[in-house]
Amino acid sequence: MSYFEPEAKVFACSESKVLAEKIAKHYGVTLGKVTFSHYSDGEFQPSFEESIRGLRVFLVCSTFPTADNLMELLLMCDAAKRASARHITAVIPYFGWARQDRKDKPRVPIGAKLVAKMLETAGATRIMTMDLHADQIQGFFEKPVDHLYASTIFLPYIKSLDLENVTMASPDMGGSKRAYAYAKYLESEVVVCYKQRKKANVIDTMELIGDVTGRNVILVDDMIDTGGTLAKAADVMMERGALSVRAICTHAILSGNAVEKIENSALTELIVTDSIPLKKQSDKIRVLSCAELFADVMHMVQNNTSISDKFIM
Q1: Cis peptide before 121 (omega within 30 of 0)
Q2: Count of CB atoms within 10 A of residue 154's CB?
Q3: Are 273 and 93 in contact (CB under 8 A)?
Q4: Is 103 a catalytic residue?
Q5: Which Pfam families match (predicted)?
Q6: In this predicted structure, what is the pLDDT of residue 2?
């Protein structure tokens, strides 16, 4: 009996299934069947319900908390390895634990490095992700890493707004490189916010470096968690004479009352991707899908072709 099997299959973790279905559709395949058996104590076990022997499998899973998402991905990598998959590509639109990329004080872990080693040990032969919190995380892996940039998605949208007097802004000193990259492409000015924290997620003071008078400001960051930084930055810029303030953030973590902070802030609009499922809808939040970007790069990886044309900047 002769039959056709695709050279690659796409599977999803529980919390990333909606995005994975979009990616699979753009890729041109049906999302693969995987089931999860749950024990009464919370333990779970994934099972591929179709053969993956000799194939490349793409496992789509954003590893945002809870840790169950990361654990699902690790178990699926191990299951695929034991089922004789030829290549195991972990597609991680949002790479969780990335803020733990260094020892910033004594006696703390480097969580991103630990996650990298766990993925490799579990069987991942390639990593595909987008807008890592810190670029050096790529070096934590001994396997190939395809680090994509959401600028491919955001820049066409920014241009479609047809704004005049655009100024790119970074909400903190660490993100200035990202803001300068956008500004170079858009031929715009740049301003930077300088903030001080007394503890995580709590801003003590914020100052603005640069002039925003009469400008349409676009804040750019890799993620938005509590929303406090962006809300504060938008308020400061409007006080300093900005015409409007928008924000583009790749990963919409939006924990706690972040959505309410955004709605009550001076932000005109928050533009995010669907790397993380949006917890709550808002008229101020626009979601742009990253599914087509990942599907295109997955095709390129499968066909061993260059992915350089997917990098706008």
Answers
A1: no
A2: 22
A3: yes
A4: no
A5: Pribosyl_synth, Pribosyltran_N
A6: 40
pLDDT computed for residue 3 by the predictor:
45
Copy the structure tokens of residue 312: 């706008």
Instruction: Note whether 215 and 238 are within 8 A (CB).
Output: no
Contacts of 47 (CB under 8 A, 6+ apart): 34, 35, 36, 37, 79
Catalytic residue among 9, 113, 195, 261: 195
> How is residue 56 written in tokens?
């490349």
Low-confidence ranges of the chain (pLDDT < 50): 1-4
Rg of the chain over Cα atoms, rounded to whole angstroms, equals: 20
* Level-2 CATH architecture, domain 9-148: 3-Layer(aba) Sandwich (3.40)
Residues 138/145, Cβ–Cβ less than 8 Å: yes
The overall longest dimension of the chain from CA atoms, in Å, is 73
CATH, domain range 151-289: 3.40.50.2020
Q: Distance between CA 163 and CA 158 in Å, rounded?
A: 8
Domain boundaries, the chain: 9-148, 151-289
Look at residue 1 in the predicted model and tell me its pLDDT. 39
Say if residues 115 and 77 touch (Cβ distance below 8 Å).
no
